[in-house]
Specification:
This protein is α/β, with parallel strands linked by helices. It contains 12 helices and 25 strands. It is globular and about 70 Å long.
């Protein structure tokens, strides 16, 4: 019987444990979870804050009973403090403050990531008790909601306009707060091109959000119950401040045990999720990720990736030979009534990878214009000038325009090495209320073909 010990109870850790039990129902799988919330969807937090998901328990992918029935021994409020790879043991603190030592045959590290605290004056002394928050765990969520209620918050400043910043701008606006969104770079959602970020910012403004891009926050101070956020240009007052400027891999435990770190100080793993230490695997937001197009490792923390990596780690911890296929960074975000999505490479990183990229913009209806309710989709397709190889795509459209599924079409095509010409040959579904004989996905690539290939 194999004793598998998993550190971490989020996407990667749970996936590893479940997969191990699928392969060998006699395997003894123990998970050390640092808090009381195993297998909760961090991605779902904004929707609990907004009230769209009223019961926070609904954010659990699986209940504790589900995990128990799957044969996982989940130890809540057990924080791993040391790994002895030579002795094959892990030391952890227990809920009563004592320590315990557990033996393992195989170990999976799934410690995830922690919120970045940028170098802003005041953040080292102010915290949830003052109305200043980060947002990455269920504990962070409860603290934020407590602040909103106790402070009777009517206004909020959000520092950071990435995915979480945009989702939280919607969530807090939905709760009735006046939101100011501040971003250091010159656009919201820095992972898409400015041509799509600009209309997205205008949509936020149309919903009542104050958007300030190209603005650096210098300090956060407290004056009684009021908070002041000082930038180069102005000072903004608010009842609460939310700092969501990204995450970093949580790797201190692994590094102290001798695990080699790689890109962005994430754990270095091969595509079988093996670390440099014998019988030690790692997966999820704490590891670097193989990128299919770049053919190298990057740091790309995504829940979908963590699930896949965890499954590979769980398979191989039980003696399998699974290989992580890699990521394209495919993502989508809903911001009020719009959805933005992207996959693959943009011009700058494609050029750095040795391609000769060209990006062509197209606007096409989501379905036949004569059927009521048609809405425009903005599409940006990136492909290699010499070969026509599809490298990336970005979309912006209404929530009902199936933006996420259309970006998935591009992601699938890129995964199998398709060219822009190949996309026109896809046999996609068509009915007037839902699409067109030539879908927006295809109209965008055929325009790329006309403007680049046919003009040579």
């Amino acid at each position: 019987m194999t004793r598998l010990l998993v550190i971490g109870g989020s996407d990667a850790g749970i996936s590893a444990g479940l997969r191990a039990r699928e392969i060998d129902p006699t395997a003894e799988v123990t998970l050390l979870v640092a808090d009381a919330y195993p297998n909760f969807s961090i991605c779902g937090i904004p929707y609990h804050v907004s009230g769209d998901v009223p019961d926070w328990r609904s954010l659990a992918h699986r209940s504790s009973d589900d995990l128990d029935k799957a044969g996982l021994r989940v130890r809540l409020n057990h924080r791993a403090t040391a790994i002895d790879a030579g002795a094959h043991t892990v030391t952890a603190t227990t809920p009563d403050g004592s320590t315990t030592t557990l033996d393992y045959d195989r170990l999976v590290i799934g410690t995830g990531a922690v919120a970045v605290r940028p170098p802003i004056a005041g953040l080292d002394t102010l915290g949830p008790g003052d109305g200043v928050h980060t947002l990455h765990t269920m504990g962070d969520t409860f603290a934020l909601l407590q602040s909103v209620q106790q402070r009777r918050a009517r206004s909020a400043v959000i520092v950071g306009a990435g995915y979480i910043g945009l989702e939280m701008a919607e969530a807090l606006t939905t709760r009735g707060l006046q939101v100011t969104l501040i971003e250091q770079v010159n656009q919201v959602m820095p992972t898409i091109d400015p041509e799509l970020a600009q209309p997205l910012a205008e949509h936020l403004r149309g919903q009542g959000v104050t958007v300030r891009c190209g603005t650096r926050v210098r300090a956060v101070t407290a004056d009684g119950d009021r908070l002041r956020v000082a930038t180069d240009a102005a000072t903004y007052e608010a009842d609460i401040v939310l700092v969501v400027t990204g995450v970093r891999p949580d790797t201190d435990l692994a590094a102290a045990a001798g695990v080699t770190l790689g890109v962005h100080r994430a754990i270095a793993v091969d595509r079988q999720m093996r670390t440099n230490l014998p019988d030690v695997f790692a997966a999820g937001d704490c590891v670097h990720t193989y990128h299919r197009l770049l053919d190298r490792n990057v740091y790309l923390p995504l829940g979908s990736t963590a699930h896949k990596q965890g499954r590979v780690a769980g398979t191989n911890a039980l003696g399998g030979q699974a290989v992580f296929a890699g990521s394209l960074g495919t993502q989508a975000v809903k911001v009020f009534d719009l959805v933005a999505a992207g996959t693959g490479l943009r011009d700058d990183n494609a050029r750095q990878a040795g391609y000769d990229p060209v990006t062509v913009a197209t606007t096409a209806d989501d379905h036949k214009a004569y059927y009521p309710g048609a809405t425009p989709i903005r599409v940006r397709v990136t492909a290699d000038r010499r070969t026509g190889k599809l490298l990336g795509a970005q979309l912006l459209g209404t929530r009902g325009a199936e933006i996420a599924k259309r970006i998935d079409t591009y992601a699938t095509a890129i995964s199998y090495g398709a060219s822009v010409v190949d996309i026109a040959e896809l046999d996609l579904s068509y009915t007037p209320p839902l699409g067109s004989p030539w879908d927006a996905v295809q109209l965008a690539t055929t325009r790329w073909q006309r403007e680049v290939i046919e003009r040579r």
